[in-house]
Amino acid sequence: MRTTVLIIGGGVTGAGLARDLALRGVACVLVDKQDVNAGASGGNHGLLHSGARYVGSDPLAARECREEGEILRRIAPHCVEDTGGLFVAVSGDDEAYVADFPDLCAKSGIAASRLDAKTARDMEPALSDRLIAAYAVADASVDPFKLSLDNIGQAMAHGARFLPWTQVVGFRLNAGRIRAATLRDAANGREYELEVSLVINAAGAWAGRVAALAGPHVDLVFSKGTLLVTQSRITDRVINRLRPATDADILVPGGTVSILGTTSVRIPDPDDCRPTIAEVDQIIDEGAAMVPELNATRYIRAYSGVRPLFGKTSAGSGDRAVSRGFALLDHARDGVENFVTITGGKLTTYRLMAEKAADLVCAKLGVDAPCLTATTVMPPYAGGRWTEPGLAPKKWLKATDPTDAILCECEMVSKSVVDDIVRTMPAASPGTTLLSIGLRSRIGKGPCQGGFCSLRVAAHLYDTEVVRGDQGLCEIRRFLDERWRGVHPILFDFPLMQAEFQEAVHCGLFGLELVPGDETWKEDA
């Protein structure tokens, strides 16, 4: 096999790079050792920043967020819910920062309209009655999975290839250049070489490990951010705490739920990332200061992502002091001429990161085609449409087909939707079909967190001969193990009893404790 550019990492930056290069006519292959958005791109608020969060700490990042948010609204409005946002301060918050906020916004070109407390509470009744200041800004929410899948869809329409469950395990170098990458197919363990002209490392928190395969060292700090998902939507708008960035100060509406977070906790290994009970308690306590309802609402899940922060922290400084900007590293300086790393950054600025990286790549390749991603509309991709909350029930109700049984009652996902996802998604590795369907739909996102729908979907996959033998049982176990990481830290009272009932069903009827969990399912010879 051969390609011009190999992109490593199927997060939103890698997906944006594939789209950028494909639109310039550069052949490329995008690989990920798991599936789309397996890292930080799938573990965030889904917040399209106005930039106001960074006006006090990083004015450049603030301007980039403002500009990129405007671009994304133009090229992919179907990925964005233009909610608007509020920055609110409550009694006890830093009044000096509150006083400086409008001028800081103005310096970064960010519109911030002052509201009196009554008006703000009329707009969002869930806000605290201890409000001392409020400003309206142009925040929005964005579906990160639809965004990545739509980027990949347009890239593939222009000739790019996407290979999920494909890990880069080595490089063959000669005379200071990478000649080929060794890829391992998770489905069968087979390794093979892909000859390349250039490699882009967009592996997020794993970028240092990928770079080391070719020799260069990349300084990264792993900052875990934990978030909580409420069972219902608390506010219509994004709510930000009006203070210097710290923990649990953003509440983002996402479809029918709200997402509260985040934290910033240094961890030594990006593979060891899961929410803890202590983080959950801290997030709720902090968030309830601006939205008291958060103290009493039901949460259905916690999850964590790892921010790959570029650079080192000085002694005594926290990870909040490390820039949230991005770094573009040309490893020619390290003696590898055709190797580039792009890391850091934010969901909001992914397109800009991809453009800068693609500009460098094209300069190295002698390609003079301009970047088109800021002006070319990104159409919805069929393989990503079922991530949208509410779409599956709308289609089901409109079709009125009595044979199209509902498999996920929480989100009303039917058999025909599952069939459509299986038809449009890349070939999954044995053992990951259910996980890949979950990434491309609302299955497992509701209150049961896959406790019942995983069984029904697996049964349908058996009926349609997508899985066979023990594969379905192994996939159920793996799917539930993944959801359990986020359910376990929030269980108490009645939800704890429900979880114990589900465990009794899973073990008593299906014997799931006896089948492999995290181990990748291997087909019998």
Structure explained in plain terms:
This protein is 32% helix and 23% strand. With 525 residues, the protein is of the alpha+beta class. It folds into three domains: 2-40 and 145-219 and 324-365, FAD/NAD(P)-binding domain (3-Layer(bba) Sandwich), CATH 3.50.50.60; 81-140 and 221-309, D-Amino Acid Oxidase, subunit A, domain 2 (D-Amino Acid Oxidase, Chain A, domain 2, 2-Layer Sandwich); 385-514, no CATH class. Helix 1 packs parallel to helix 5, helix 1 (12-23) packs across helix 8 (350-365) and helix 12 packs antiparallel against helix 13. The longest helix is centred in the C-terminal third of the chain and has 18 residues, at 493-510. It is globular.
Summed up, what is this model?
By secondary structure, the chain is an alpha+beta fold. The chain has three domains: 2-40 and 145-219 and 324-365, 3-Layer(bba) Sandwich (FAD/NAD(P)-binding domain), CATH 3.50.50.60; 81-140 and 221-309, 2-Layer Sandwich (D-Amino Acid Oxidase, Chain A, domain 2), CATH 3.30.9; 385-514, no CATH class.
